[in-house]
From TrEMBL:
It is a multi-pass membrane protein. The chain crosses the membrane at residues 37-57, 69-86, 101-120, 144-175, 222-244, 265-283, 289-306, 347-373, 379-401, 413-433, 453-471. It comes from the Bacteria. It is found in: Membrane. InterPro entries: Cit_transptr-like_dom, NhaD-like. Residues 1-20 form the signal peptide. It comes from Methylomagnum ishizawai. Coiled coil: none annotated. Keywords: Antiport, Ion transport, Membrane, Signal, Sodium, Sodium transport, Transmembrane, Transmembrane helix, Transport. This is Na+/H+ antiporter NhaD. Pfam families: CitMHS (PF03600).
Amino acid sequence: MAKRALALCSLLSIPLIAVSGEIQEPPPVLPHLDLTHHFIGYLAIAITVLAYILAMTEETTDLRKSKPMVMGAALVWFAICIQYALVGDPKPAVTAFESNLLAYAELLLFILVSMTYLNAMEDRGIFDALRVWLLNREFSYRQLFWITGGLAFVISTAVSGLAVGLLMGAVAAAVGKHEPKFVALACVNIVVATNAGGSFCPLGGISTLFVWQSGIVEFAEFFRLAVPCLVNFLVPALIMHFFVPRECPVVSRRQVVLRRGARRIIALFVLTLAITVASDVFLKLPPAAGMMAGLGLLQFFSFYLLRTAHEPDGSERLGDPKAVNWLDDREYDIFQKIGNLEWDTLLFFYGAMMLIGALGFIGYLDAIAQFLFGQISPTLANILIGLSSAFVDNGTLMFAVLAMHPDISEGQWLLLTLTLGVGGSLLAIGSAPGVGLLGQLKGVYTFGFHLRWFPVILLGYFASVAAHFWVNARYF
């Protein structure tokens, strides 16, 4: 019986050997095509420009910004792959697409976990408690101006800028609901502080995260931008301080009860960030690996909340702060927190990264890089790129620069990280926090109001660049 089985296996292996012999010689790979002066290249530019125009006019057209970007990315990459297939082999284009997709997947998983934790903390009443605490402390508007800005600066070092902007904007709107001027000034300050805080820590800023993921700058080296980023925040804030009303808001006497597990979720988030940094520094794992481990911890903790939930007994009164342990979590589902993420923004980044990746694959970014980092000084190039982030998302621009592979020093990479991070504060549409607050506080915080403070923010921009050259001179 064993001999028959052996003979059968031998017979079955003959066609496999024949087939393997036929495919030992791989087909020739088509060389990279130059499409910069081809119809496909011009089509890619036209689609990219049109997609960005539609995304930037979201407030006017009511068309979500992710829709034109996702569709544009699909059209461009289909056009490129079709052209390669017509010539003979689409594999180079497919490989390039997969490379860009991998870069986006790492970004998506990182932000997904961060925003899921924020949604979980909001569900537990943590941010509502912060708003009430600020109102109960009887701070003046000027004190609240600095508190909200300072918190935005600190929190944005570990949390995505969009989430921090929306959170602190809600706090400013709650404490200043009877003083619209304060709310508008506080929002400008929050946008500047959020972008500055996220520029010296990879855990908070998109452009900073891209550089960290690429392995160009080590995690600890980013903190050398702390002083320049602080200067960027303080210069405009000190000037705006004198325009903030002196009065105090109406005191709130409302009490907020933290729901069961609130403090433990905060601890898990801190642990997740620690795992992310440690796994990158010591194991060289991508940041997304540590964040996904943290998501697993949150999922198990949500299961614990679900299984230990119970109905209140007769000794526990509804509304009693001591009764937090019986709050009914029988329907608590962590996947609802994942479903409530800002998917429009996440998909916008997909479209932006894939479009920029397509332009890079075609060859346009190499031509731009030769001009920016070959014909003019890297310092001037980085400053100009930072200024352009007032109009184009900084994450998109950083991804474009990374695709150019410029040969610049670590000091110049840090300068680029700084200028792209804080340059988005110049206009309300230049960064995710600004765009988010425009939609959250319509009629109070507007594009025109933010534009009034453009000269002050620009002064902070150049002050931060000067501080970088002063503090980090040895890196150039």
